[in-house]
Design brief:
Distance between the termini: 67 Å
Order of helices and strands: HHHHHHHHHHHHHHHHHHHHHEEHEHEHE
Largest sheet: 5 strands, mixed
Radius of gyration: 25 Å
Shape: globular
Number of strands: 5
Number of helices: 24
Strand content: 5-15%
């Protein structure tokens, strides 16, 4: 069975894999509404929406946004195009946004195949890498999100592809630098991958000239993209970069984000490859050092990238997504060469076969579930429900702790809403409303069902007459995420009450 499966994978054409990846993404475009994380909505979609309406989108008291505005600027243009075409419902505009991301992500599949083939000349390994990006359990779902860590992957792979050109010339270094610069504009932390490549060339006597061309082309490309934009918008070509460094070097700011031990990402990689296969990929990545100068160069880049993220205290799983394809690629090539060197011992072949079956079964289940997942459904649908009421002056968002921010983009109103938590006395909310510096609320949204009756009793002290108007349930995956990690996944039902 394993040999039949390998022959099937090896006989696939890149065109067939691209078609499969595209179909999976079209399903995600249609059925996988909502957003995956805080940043792929509030740092991109909401930002572009506020920007388009002429409102401030910066925070932390700064006049400069700490990310490049080029990526949100793409959304600004997409929203403008949608308006011009008469598409004005937020959920319909997001279908266009997801479709745009789906199309761009196809180039990631293309470059994953060609980069892998350049590294080893093995079609089955190239097909395996392309299939991972096409039909990996989370890739269609994440590829249609406005997520910097995933949107930069095609450009990152393209940069690596040109960096390992067989007939390497100055043109290759130049094209590689441009691709890496675009990836940097999208996600700044990928800088460690081109840095590793540049350092490798710099210490190879025959490649010093290429290293200089690469470095200059990289800097010029950034200057003409992010730098030029920052100069025109802020008056300083380094504005967003310096603001990012300022914010992320502040211990107070970083302490408010998820923390983790230095080895956390070792487990995260295991999660992404569904557990058991990681025991082949880790030795494979190490063994890839022996394969060629190109694999050594990419391994050095990978080490730079993971070393930074392992030492930096702010640790979120999605941060390592840009380097995941390189990790798997080097692991697959390395374990193949190791098996050849060891003359393919039976125990290793059996374990590899078991790992493949394990991955395919779990990956298929995950792919089916995640590709049609409506993520953050309760939050999104609550705002859509309010929008359909036509007349909403304001609302109170209530929760046992700090409730997650509502995606006002779907409400299409820039409201300065009220928040109320269990730590506050009802008189504090009443005082805020009576202050009169913003419209009084005509709706209350209660996030989560924990201690609901007690919380309702507290709210009745401020709003004696409240009528239940709607209950918005979370999606299936949202429920699972909440049960697995309730501290960081507040994906609960939202209850909407009308204030009489």
């Amino acid at each position: 069975m394993i040999q039949t499966l390998k022959r099937y994978i090896g006989n696939l054409s890149l065109t067939q894999i691209l078609i499969a990846g595209f179909l999976a993404r079209i399903i995600a475009v249609i059925f996988s509404a909502g957003y995956g994380f805080h940043d792929d909505h509030f740092e991109v979609v909401e930002l572009a929406w506020k920007w388009k309406d002429g409102l401030s989108f910066t925070w932390d008291g700064s006049a400069i946004h700490m990310f490049s505005l080029l990526y949100p600027g793409l959304h600004y243009l997409i929203f403008s195009l949608c308006r011009w075409l008469g598409i004005d419902q937020p959920e319909h505009m997001m279908i266009v946004v997801r479709a745009f991301h789906a199309v761009v992500s196809m180039s990631g599949i293309y470059y994953a195949w060609h980069l892998s083939y350049r590294l080893g000349g093995n079609k089955m390994l190239a097909n395996s890498m392309a299939l991972l990006l096409a039909l990996g359990w989370f890739f269609p779902f994440l590829s249609v999100r406005s997520l910097r860590e995933v949107f930069c992957i095609p450009f990152l792979l393209a940069g690596c592809y040109h960096a390992v050109a067989d007939n390497f010339r100055s043109r290759s270094a130049f094209l590689s630098a441009i691709c890496f610069a675009i990836a940097f504009d999208i996600r700044m932390q990928i800088i460690f991958i081109p840095l590793g490549i540049g350092v490798w060339w710099l210490f190879q006597k025959a490649s010093i000239r290429h290293a200089i061309i690469f470095g200059l082309a990289f800097l010029v490309s950034i200057a003409l993209t992010q730098g030029l934009f920052d100069l025109l918008y802020y008056g300083n070509p380094l504005a967003s970069t310096l603001e990012y460094l300022r914010y992320n070097s502040d211990a107070t700011h970083i302490g408010s984000y998820p923390q983790g031990p230095w080895y956390m990402y070792a487990g995260t990689l295991a999660l992404f490859v569904l557990g058991i296969p990681v025991f082949l990929l880790y030795p494979g990545v190490i063994y890839s050092y022996k394969i060629s100068a190109h694999t050594r160069m990419l391994l050095l880049s990978l080490i730079f990238f993971f070393l930074f993220h392992s030492l930096y205290s702010n640790k979120q799983e999605r941060f390592i997504l840009p380097a995941l394809p390189l990790f798997v690629m080097l692991g697959l090539h390395g374990i193949r060469e190791a098996m050849i060197a060891l003359k393919q011992p039976k125990w290793l072949r059996n374990f590899a076969a078991f790992s493949l079956i394990w991955f395919l079964v779990l990956n298929t289940l995950g792919l089916i579930l995640l590709t049609v997942t409506y993520s953050k459904k309760a939050r999104v649908e609550s705002m859509i429900w309010l929008r359909e009421q036509k007349q909403v002056s304001n609302f109170v968002l209530e929760g046992t702790g700090n409730p997650p921010p509502p995606p006002l983009f779907y409400l299409q109103q820039h409201l300065n809403y009220y928040t109320f938590t269990a730590a506050q006395h009802p008189s504090a909310l009443d005082s805020m409303i009576r202050k009169g510096d913003r419209p009084a609320p005509d709706y209350v949204i209660m996030a989560g069902s924990k201690d609901l009756d007690k919380r309702l009793e507290r709210l009745h002290a401020v709003f004696p007459r409240m009528e239940k108007a709607a209950t918005i349930e979370p999606g299936f995956i949202d429920n699972i995420a909440y049960r697995l990690n309730p501290k960081h996944n507040q994906n609960e039902a939202w209850f909407i009450y009308r204030v009489q």
